[in-house]
Design a protein that fits this description.
Blueprint lengths: L19 E2 L5 E5 L11 E7 L5 E6 L5 E6 L5 E4 L11 E7 L5 E6 L5 E6 L5 E4 L11 E7 L6 E6 L5 E6 L5 E4 L11 E4 L11 E6 L5 E6 L5 E4 L11 E7 L5 E6 L5 E6 L5 E4 L11 E7 L5 E6 L5 E6 L5 E4 L11 E7 L5 E6 L5 E7 L1
Parallel strand pairs: 1-26
Antiparallel strand pairs: 2-29, 3-4, 4-5, 5-6, 7-8, 8-9, 9-10, 11-12, 12-13, 13-14, 15-16, 16-17, 17-18, 19-20, 20-21, 21-22, 23-24, 24-25, 25-26, 27-28, 28-29
């Protein structure tokens, strides 16, 4: 069970110029959830941070089982399992998104490797749910991926019995509406995907990506009434595995994501609610296939965090404020080889950032960056 297993990221190109800021004033706290494994591919990942500084995420134990956690602003951990979560390797519980009140949306894999969504209340009560047309085979089912920051409306995906993905929105009363973007492919692993962590804003607008029949990616925003606006970014490639991915939306309806060019290099963009797009690359990002800039989240003020991959394949963190200034950072102790380094996942209104870093042994550790 992989965190973004169903969310593949994904005429002149004029990139927004940005000054690089020093990271000397940044404070980074590293953390590991109790029970996290210490072998390669195991450890702790912070996924979502709310306005109060609480962090939700998951850890992988020494048996490669997933478990959810909530880390308080004081650093105290509460670990939890969804009912009926499997206890075998690659099974278990993932906490994917967190609202202001501390309620968590996520998903779990049962003992048959079928996925189910859940909502965890602040008192620890877990309510599970399945989309009506979710498949019941291994790797199929329902994933809750984002929760409204100020409420309990949830966006996510379901994977049908043909292993095609579709979007879903679960209202606060438990009603589930299923949807698919027009033009989404119907082949195995294709379809419609909603963003993780910050994929729905307080108005109920959803950010997502769809993969067409040729395996090219396109982005969309879905209004609370169900209208879907699709868009592409100039410079995005049109071959399989290329195109445009969307990773987050804020209160104003501004979105951020990644586009993949014809060389399969990655570039960041921010799209305003009026459709205006600003493209950017983090200084030092590589330009080869699989290298470049990958925004992961956008906060209320329009500041974007994410990772960039350099020419050696190492990951580094960045924060791009709405004015365009970029601050780069690495977590001390992060590995420096290909596939290692620092990977931010989300930032709150104060630009506190959480995510994970991968050390030289391939072990994951959580971090909290504050300014």
């Amino acid at each position: 069970m992989k965190r973004i297993g169903f969310l593949i990221l994904l005429l002149c190109i004029c990139f927004a110029s940005a000054a690089q800021q020093p990271a000397a004033k940044l404070k980074i706290n590293k953390f590991n959830a109790p029970g996290a494994g210490t072998a390669k591919g195991q450890g702790t990942e912070g996924l979502a941070i709310n306005s109060g500084g609480e962090i939700a995420g998951y850890y992988i134990d020494s048996s490669n089982v997933f478990h959810g956690f909530l880390r308080s602003s004081h650093g105290t951990f509460t670990t939890f399992e969804a009912p009926d979560a499997g206890t075998g390797a690659s099974e278990g519980t993932v906490a994917a998104s967190l609202n202001t009140a501390g309620e968590i949306a996520g998903y779990y894999s049962d003992s048959s490797s079928v996925l189910h969504g859940y909502l965890r209340a602040t008192d620890g009560t877990v309510t599970t749910f399945d989309a009506p047309h979710a498949g019941t085979g291994a790797g199929q089912g329902t994933e809750a991926l984002s929760i409204d920051p100020s409420g309990t409306t949830i966006a996510g995906v379901y994977i049908d019995d043909n292993t095609v993905s579709h979007g879903l929105v679960r209202a606060s009363d438990g009603t589930i509406t299923e949807f698919s973007a027009k033009g989404a492919g119907t082949g195995k692993y294709q379809g419609t995907f909603t963003a993780v962590v910050g994929g729905i804003n307080p108005a109920g607008t959803i950010a997502g990506t769809y993969e067409d029949a040729k395996s090219v990616f396109h982005s969309f925003v879905r209004s609370p009434k169900g209208a879907i606006i699709k868009f592409n970014v100039s410079g995005a490639g049109t071959d399989a595995g290329q195109g445009v991915g969307l990773s987050g939306i804020n209160t104003a309806g501004t979105t951020t994501g990644t586009y993949i060019d014809s060389s399969s290099a990655l570039h960041g963009y921010v799209r305003a609610s009026n459709g205006t797009i600003a493209k950017f690359n983090v200084p030092g990002a590589g330009t080869g296939a699989g290298q470049g800039t990958e925004p992961e989240n956008i906060n209320t003020g329009g500041d974007t965090t994410g990772q960039y991959v350099d020419t050696s394949g190492m990951n580094h963190g960045f924060l791009r404020v709405s004015a365009g200034t970029i601050t780069k950072f690495n977590v001390p102790g992060a590995g420096t080889a290909s596939g290692q380094g620092t990977v931010p996942d989300s930032n709150n209104a104060a630009d506190a950032i959480t995510g994970y870093y991968i050390d030289s042994g391939g072990v994951f550790h959580g971090f909290l960056l504050t300014q």
